[in-house]
Amino acid sequence: MNQTTTYSANHQQLSQLMQSANITNFDQLSEVSGVSQWQLNRLLVGLMPKLPIETLLKLSKTLQVTLEQLLTSFKIDDSLAEDWQIGNQLTSSFSPSSAEHLQQEYQHLQQQLEQQKETLEQEFQKSSLAVLESWLLQWPTAAIVSQKNPQLSAVKLLPLVKPIFELLKQWGLEMNATVGETIPYDPQFHQLLEGGGTAEPGELVVVRYVGYRQGDKLLHRAKVSPVKKDEE
User: Residue-wise pLDDT tens for the chain (232 aa)?
Assistant: First the structure.
């Protein structure tokens, strides 16, 4: 059976199972099951033997069929047929109770992962709050004092925000420019302020709002405006 025929047969079979499970399209199947589109495509082209058992369990649960039914519902690529026959021999005695046991084990693993995720989130919040502790305690008072005393220099408040920058540093966040800095315009890293004029790549611009990056990932472009003659 060639790959085109395999894909067509598997596509029809999967569509029927989806219809029985009230799933309208592959995007919904991927979202509900947690199986990526790439893995679904591997199933369609006959590469079921290459899919992890966790993926097959997710699909059987979502499509409301037993694992054994799922294993026998789809065509296999010819190059994998011999290996798949060996696998079928090993699973010929694969009883519904053992399939149910695997599903229970999988659900148990899911619960463990959720608990680990919750624990990691709690640890993350705890460590972040530890860094921000001084800011949390002092900033509300400083904000009230500054409102009552407009003459208070903003410079005196700057040390209070240091913990925030320490936290950002721990997360690997870096500013990709400094406010007031004059730099060559690069559209990849800089964004012209709306209504602030135009600039060609390489022309000097002034940074009005900083941008941020995290490692190699650009999070926010710095907002800039063209250098005016009196600023040159």
Answer: 555 788 888 889 999 999 999 998 988 999 999 999 888 888 888 888 778 888 888 898 899 988 778 888 888 776 655 444 444 444 444 445 555 666 677 677 777 777 888 888 888 888 888 888 888 778 788 878 787 887 777 777 778 888 888 888 888 888 888 888 999 999 999 999 887 788 899 999 999 998 888 888 888 899 999 987 655 5
**Tokens representing 16?**
């029927």
To the question of pTM greater than 0.70 for the whole model, the response is no
